[in-house]
Amino acid sequence: MQPKVPVSRISVAPMMDWTDRHYRFFLRLISKHTLLYTEMVTTGAILRGKDNHRYLEYSKEEHPVALQLGGDSPTALAECAKIGEDYGYDEINLNVGCPSDRVQSGSFGACLMKEPDLVAEMVTACKSQVKIPVTVKHRIGVNGKESYEDLHHFVSKIRSAGVDQIIVHARIAILEGLSPKENRTIPPLRYEDVYSLKKDFPDLPIVINGGIKTHEEVEQHLTKVDGVMIGRAAYDNPFLFSEVDSLYYDSKDSVRTREEVLSELIPYVHSVLEKEGKVHYILRHILGLYHGERGAREYRKFLTDRMHNHDATESILKDYLLLR
């Protein structure tokens, strides 16, 4: 019997305001096996929020799906990890990579790379409460702690704490002077540092993240590490994932066309609108479906001209499909 393909072989990065439950449902129509991550949810939102269900709710079709938590209290993170497990999430991921000012003001995210002992405590606390994997997503460093030796020390600490997998964004985070957007592009990519981690920690599953946009790049990285996480390209060009199941998970299922994806999205949009929200909350996530194809501009214009109307419904998708 061939070994099972790791669920984390290909994943979509957690992205604030982007990878909400509507995007995740849409992406699942394109790929059945890609591992999906929630937006970061803070421990405060879960433990002190008036409606934590709103942050944790997801559709059963999203599996496999991981919950990303943000916080710096081992006790609070452990409590939230247990809640996430009870909700049925497949993995708990700790955010040690976000460089935004809002996250830094709460003393978590990328600035935690300066405190490897604390992150190790966070991992230990979460693992004491859940049976599902506990993983950490982090940078290769932060300004002032940006050498490979610093990175190796950080990983050795959380590895000793029992972390099940790490996802490494192959850029440092510059905590002062750069915006989150600039932190995704200005610090140079150092893929070799991630490859070196795999050599130094061969038994630790390692996923690489940062600047990856094509299947050619994915296949190259997979010769060095265990998995690849794709960020902005997953949002800008979601149909890139139409080949993921066959290329990386040995799936023999037929690939849906873009039109089939839109058709299958219609009942989901209808069910959501019966309960809450506006149609543009969902359709904003699908504007890149025809990326690189003839008619992409017209498709985007068709949706954007209509989806903000106060009475807009899933009929926008039906009308578009009639024009195809």
TrEMBL record:
The active site is at 98 (proton donor). The keyword Transmembrane helix does not apply. Its cofactor is FMN. It comes from the Bacteria. The record marks 95, 181, 184, 297, 300 as: Interacts with tRNA. One of its GO terms (molecular function) is tRNA-dihydrouridine20 synthase activity. The keyword Nucleotide-binding applies. Belongs to the dus family. HAMAP family: DusA_subfam. PANTHER family: FMN-LINKED OXIDOREDUCTASES SUPERFAMILY PROTEIN. Catalyzes the synthesis of 5,6-dihydrouridine (D), a modified base found in the D-loop of most tRNAs, via the reduction of the C5-C6 double bond in target uridines. Specifically modifies U20 and U20a in tRNAs. This is tRNA-dihydrouridine(20/20a) synthase.
